[in-house]
Amino acid sequence: MDDDLPAKLAAFSGKGYVIAPAGYGKTHLIAMAVKASLQRQLILTHTYAGVNAIKKKMQMLSVPASRYQIDTIASWTLRLCLYFPNTSKWNKEYPSGKEWAKLYEAGTALLAKPFVERFVRSSYSGVYVDEYQDCSSQQHTLVAAIGKHLSCRLLGDPMQAIFDFADKPVDWERDIYPHYQLLGELKKPWRWHSAGAPELGGWLDEASKRLRAGERISIATPLPKGVNRVAIDLTDFTNPKRLNCFFSFLDNDDAVIAIHSGDQKSKNKTHKLAQALGGRFSSIEEVEGKDLFSFIKKLEAAKTVSERLCLVIEFAKKCCNAVDGIFSAATKRGEQARATKATKYPDILELANRYLADPSSPNLARLLAAIQSNPETSTYRRDLLNRFMKILRVHEENAALSLQESAQRYQRDFRHSGRPIRHNKLIGTTLLVKGLEYDRAIILEADSMSPKELYVALTRGAKTITIVTLRNTIPA
């Protein structure tokens, strides 16, 4: 990092941007720039995981808390509109879906009001917007409105722009380069130097330059230390050794992420692969929790407790292997069952009977916990199951709420706190792991990824990357 860049950002009073490739010290730069500032700064990003990462860096570098406020663009806009409801014409606390677009429009209009300008100017002297490539065009319009009142510094990397918005993503060629001043570009791959993998960092730096230029990357041997290539077809189900490359990662506590591309077909592949690996790797769910909310909707709509139990068993099968073998035939039909000498797991039978007699959230939680801890089962969608268990706890503690209302309350808190990942061998998509760092990354079907997705995937592993493909060059 240019030693003068933090001071340059702190003193800057116009509209500018910094090109910040993945792993090159962007969060460190923001923290040092805020530390060099004399007045309070607003720092905006897109996710609460991003908020927490910046806060952690601020604390690590002893930046006074009085110098900054960190928030997501969505939350800051929502709070601003709710603070001035009469002018913004906004009073909805929990927007969803297309309502977010209307919120950004309301926030942009609100920022044009002179009294709101005074409010913003008295609260902050400048704004930093992190991961700017992830902004939609409506968010960009909102940030431009903030930039009329405050010094505005954007940090991002167009090569990481992989989100597919209903509203178009920000166009750097049209929206940024002509109107914002280039303040600097981060040049050193700090993530890999800090992890003791400078050769990997150097290779990734060269690889990213090729991808930006529209070229392919050669992965023919010899490859530098930290870069491995596995020539195998993961879709060849006749090959009993097709998954062997994953098992070597189970020998230590390093955080490992296996990455598919972000299309819907690949999202389904993450769950199938985790299932095939018997839960040794666990798949990550989308933040929105579509599968989770779909199940809850069906559960609440069920007309009989028998139907509810059948739905619960089907949900358990989506999360764990070998569920069928631990239930009696009667239980799987949604019926009360009687234990016999042949009953393999009388505790599971008893908990299912108890749920049929009293379909409460505590009884459902006990049943699911018993399924998860059974010696025959293995959980491969821990994220999905754990989130539902927490919703059941919210429901138990708030009897006046419906299960769906409990889910909405949990989802609100989940967005703030993020997912607690205790299992550190994971499978996800580029969209779900973007912005996150792991010790080791496995790039799945690398030849099928777009250049931007490939760039995001390659830059997730700090110590090693393993590229799974039959080709000698990527992307295809």
From TrEMBL:
The keyword Nucleotide-binding applies. It comes from the Bacteria. The keyword Ribosomal protein does not apply. InterPro entries: P-loop_NTPase, UvrD-like_ATP-bd. Pfam families: UvrD-helicase (PF00580). Residues 109-165 form the UvrD-like helicase ATP-binding domain. GO terms for molecular function: ATP binding; helicase activity; hydrolase activity. SUPFAM superfamilies: P-loop containing nucleoside triphosphate hydrolases. Keywords: ATP-binding, Helicase, Hydrolase, Nucleotide-binding. This is UvrD/REP helicase N-terminal domain protein. It comes from Collimonas fungivorans.
